[in-house]
Amino acid sequence: QRLVQEAVGLSFNTILGSVPLVAITLYIASKFSLDDTLRVLIYQNLSDLVNQNILDLILEWSNNFIKSVNSGWFGLIGLFTFGWLIILIMTSVEGAFNHVWNTNKSRNIIKRFSIYLAIVFLAPFIVILFLQGIATFSGFITVLAEYKFFSIFSSLLYLVALFILSIVIFSLMY
């Protein structure tokens, strides 16, 4: 089978789709005055995983996108273009998963479109909840690590809690 090629394709699509997804997420969050909170959480939680320059560049492009959307017709065209890119990327990812799991029949277009819209519009809130949960739990683990008994298990406890939090959030999304 072509599992390696599918994995490479999914990685490429994820990297390619990160800027439009972050831009749309920040745009939606800005409509609820949550964009500053989301930026702070992104810097707090992703600065260890992503190079600071790359993170700054992605957020700068996202800010430029938000400014252009608020500027008029060209911004509206950009919004629809980014939305279309996100739909294409989600379709590609769904197709890759269908191929990996040997699913021959895909969902109908209405169900697929409604799920994609739900993901795009709920993503800012889910990301904020997820990143805030990680930040809160990191503080809790730091406090527990001060006690000798918990200092041994703090890393394991952190990973288990992160895993459980991921399962809960993905379950809510499903």
Short description:
The chain is 86% helix and 0% strand. By secondary structure, the protein is an all-alpha fold.
What are its keywords?
174 residues, mainly alpha
Which class of secondary structure composition applies to the elements?
mainly alpha
Strand % is under 5%
Number of helices: 6
Radius of gyration: 19 Å
Distance between the termini: 28 Å
Question: Would you mind describing this structure in some detail?
Answer:
The protein has 174 residues and is mainly α. It contains 6 helices and no strands. The mean pLDDT is 78.
List the helices and strands and how they pair.
Blueprint: H1 3-31, H2 35-46, H3 52-69, H4 73-100, H5 109-145, H6 148-173
Helix pairs in contact: 1-2, 1-3, 1-4, 1-5, 2-5, 3-4, 5-6
